[in-house]
Design brief:
The complex is a heterodimer.
Chain A: E1 4-7, E2 10-13, E3 19-25, E4 31-37, E5 43-50, E6 53-57, E7 64-70, E8 73-78, E9 87-94, E10 102-103, E11 107-111
Parallel strand pairs in A: 2-11
Antiparallel strand pairs in A: 1-3, 3-8, 4-5, 4-9, 5-6, 7-8, 9-10, 9-11
Chain B: E1 4-5, E2 11-14, E3 19-25, E4 32-38, E5 45-51, E6 54-58, E7 61-66, E8 71-76, E9 85-92, E10 100-101, E11 105-110
Parallel strand pairs in B: 2-11
Antiparallel strand pairs in B: 1-3, 3-8, 4-5, 4-9, 6-7, 7-8, 9-10, 9-11
Classes of the chains: A mainly beta, B mainly beta.
Chain lengths: 112, 111
């Protein structure tokens, strides 16, 4: 029974396309995140949502638009994909009061 | 200067030794400290969570936090080949709602 699940696991697409990644958590957490992991394994926060409200937008280009239809889901839509967007994108969740985050399996995005 | 510094390795050791992994940080507001293990092509998995200074032990793993030195460590006793992974330290402050990660240390335990 997966706690944080994201789809798809792999995504290969051409420059200029628009794509979406979906994330769902069944932990009952109030806070969800998107992190980006580059080729050197460095994980960096992109967005943080608390009860469907955007809390953190860490200087991410506005081609990236997160959407949280409810507190169990946080999707990421990316417009006009660029080569530099190639990375692994992780969804995560945590309780408001606690700070341990639980991560999904990642979506490996390759832009060609 | 990065907020969290971690030697990326790679670190390769024989099976059975005690492994020590470390991170230093610059933000004195950090109070919550975590270690994650990430296997190849998988998501980070939470190993240890510590609040403020002190030690925490869980099986073969011990996490240490020294806030005065802004230094955290993870010790792995009786290391096993299955411990081979990238280990990421992460930390945050009260109410920050984001984790700041180190670069990760790639560890290989040789049988």
């Amino acid at each position: 029974d997966t706690a944080v699940s994201q789809t798809p696991k792999y995504l290969v697409t051409q420059m200029g396309n628009d794509k979406s990644i979906k994330c769902e958590q069944n932990l009952g957490h109030d806070t969800m995140y998107w992190y980006k992991q580059d080729s050197k394994k460095f994980l960096k926060i992109m967005f943080s949502y608390n009860n469907k409200e955007l809390i953190i937008n860490e200087t991410v280009p506005n081609r990236f638009s997160p959407k949280s239809p409810d507190k169990a889901h946080l999707n990421l839509h990316i417009n006009s994909l660029e080569l530099g967007d190639s990375a692994v994108y992780f969804c995560a969740s945590s309780r408001i009061q606690n700070t341990e985050a639980f991560f999904g399996q990642g979506t490996r995005l390759t832009v060609v | 200067q990065k907020e969290v510094e971690q030697d990326p390795g790679p670190l390769s050791v024989p099976e059975g030794v005690i492994v020590s992994l470390n991170c230093t940080y610059s933000n004195s507001a950090f109070q919550y400290f975590m270690w994650y293990r990430q296997y190849s092509r998988k998501g980070p998995e939470l190993l240890m969570y510590t609040y403020s200074s002190g030690n925490k032990e869980d099986g073969r793993f011990t996490a240490q936090v020294d806030k005065s030195s802004k230094y955290i460590s993870l010790f792995i006793r009786d290391s096993q080949p299955s411990d081979s992974a990238t280990y990421l330290c992460a930390m945050t402050s009260q109410g920050a709602q984001k984790l700041v990660f180190g670069q990760g240390t790639r560890l290989t335990i040789n049988p």
